[in-house]
């Protein structure tokens, strides 16, 4: 159950652990867990709430649980407008397309809270653009090979600073990210071209096709945004 408070106060108790909910705070109560929620006696809350379930609901809750310090969402009329749209779609008819659309909006609505930190990242600060610039540079040069020294020199930052900032924002060191993107591009070549593994390895900057073939076998199907099997192609030179 998703709860977003806009006025007043309330208490949510999950497994005997009490949490004060005040304006602009949200919480998610997991399924099959003893819980209780109630408005404050002196300053009762006004809340928007949604019961939800589905194949990815547990993953959404797990992500919510990990973002312990990001439960305060600034009030926005757009948030309320989106909730009202979902409510109206479900309240006015039972047409399949309306229900489907309401569910998609519901996922977007809840995700906008759970992933608020990512959703609110500004792109106006040059430092915020640094990681995007590095990623764009790497993606435009997948046929080349870089060292961290060269990348640091290119963007005029220290290696340690770039390593820390890049890993913090992407989850990967720069050169690991670069290698993963190379293999991801290789999967696209395998899917949409008739190029051999040997030809593909040269196109993305691997001078040793045998090493590249082994690397592709290890990473095959485990990359974000790629498919696990590409038209039945076998990894052969």
Task: Provide a compact summary of the structure.
The longest helix is centred in the middle third of the chain and has 19 residues.
Described by strand count, sense and barrel closure, the largest sheet is: 3 strands, antiparallel
The number of E-state strands comes to: 6
The residue-averaged pLDDT reads 83
Write down the secondary-structure element order: EEEEEEHHHHHHHHHH
Number of helices: 10
Content of β-strand:
5-15%
Shape: elongated
Share of helix among residues? 40-55%
List the domain count as a whole number.
2
Strand order, biggest sheet?
Answer: 4-1-6
Pick out the low-confidence regions: 221-237
Please tell me how large the radius of gyration is.
Answer: 24 Å
Regarding quaternary structure, how should these chains be classified? single chain
Distance between the termini: 52 Å
Class by SSE composition: alpha+beta
Descriptive account of the structure:
The C terminus is likely disordered. With 237 residues, this protein is an alpha+beta fold. Strand 2 and strand 3 form a beta hairpin. The chain has a three-stranded antiparallel beta sheet with strand order 4-1-6, with no helix packed on it. Helix 2 packs antiparallel against helix 3 and helix 9 packs across helix 10. Helices cover 51% and strands 12% of the residues. It is built from ten helices and six strands. The protein has two domains: 118 residues, no CATH class; 94 residues, Homeodomain-like (Arc Repressor Mutant, subunit A).
């Amino acid at each position: 159950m998703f709860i977003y408070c806009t006025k007043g106060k309330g208490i949510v108790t999950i497994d005997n652990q009490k949490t004060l909910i005040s304006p602009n705070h949200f919480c998610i109560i997991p399924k099959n867990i003893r819980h209780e929620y109630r408005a404050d006696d002196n300053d009762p809350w006004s809340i928007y709430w949604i019961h939800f379930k589905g194949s990815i609901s547990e993953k959404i809750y797990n992500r919510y649980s990990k973002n312990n310090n990001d439960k305060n969402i600034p009030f926005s009329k757009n948030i309320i407008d989106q909730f009202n749209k979902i409510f109206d779609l479900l309240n006015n008819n039972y047409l399949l397309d309306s229900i489907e659309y309401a569910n998609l909006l519901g996922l977007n609505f809840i995700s906008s809270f759970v992933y608020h930190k990512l959703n609110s990242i500004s792109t106006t600060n040059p430092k915020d653009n640094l990681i995007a610039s590095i990623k764009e540079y790497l993606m435009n040069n997948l046929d080349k090979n870089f060292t961290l020294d060269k990348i640091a020199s290119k963007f005029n930052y220290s290696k340690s600073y770039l390593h820390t900032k890049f890993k913090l924002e992407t989850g990967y060191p720069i050169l690991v990210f670069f290698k993963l993107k190379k293999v991801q591009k290789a999967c696209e070549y395998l899917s949409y071209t008739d190029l051999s593994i040997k030809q593909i390895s040269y196109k993305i900057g691997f001078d040793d096709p045998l090493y590249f073939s082994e690397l592709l076998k290890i990473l095959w199907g485990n990359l974000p945004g790629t498919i696990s099997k590409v038209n039945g192609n076998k990894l052969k030179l």
